[in-house]
Amino acid sequence: MVSLLAEVARNYVELRGGQQRLEVARRDLKLQQEELELTRTRYLGGVATELDVTRDAALLAAQQAVIPPLETATRSTMYALAVLLGLQPGALVAELSPVANVPVVPPKFRSGYPRNLLRRRPDVRRAERQLAAETARIGVAKAEWFPKLSLTGDAGWKV
Fold this sequence. Notes:
- The chain has 159 residues and is mainly α.
- The protein has five helices and no strands.
- It has helices at 2-44, 50-84, 93-96, 114-120, 122-143.
């Protein structure tokens, strides 16, 4: 169950990050189109060369080529989320299509150093206790190597 929830959370964050990248790519495409129009206007005015227009057209084509893979990845992540939640692949497309921010981890879940996170895990704590018990057993076994001396006596008062 923990693995499933982790996979859902990972896919959701990946989806929102992909949507953000897609929005940035679309804004860059719009800016690149404006840049090409500006360069064409400058070329017609005699300020820019045909090489400048060709270069900006190539940059625009490259930016246009970036968008379809991002859209495909975003749609694929939506389908994966639906399948992880036991739904039909397209069931969450309408709900997840609006762009949203990547969720922020609440401060109470921040663990600080990774070693502190490891120390809180029950399996690691159990292994530490088992190690301490085995170390104590080794100490007992070493003590068995040494000779034992025992003194007995009787003390008392005679009147």
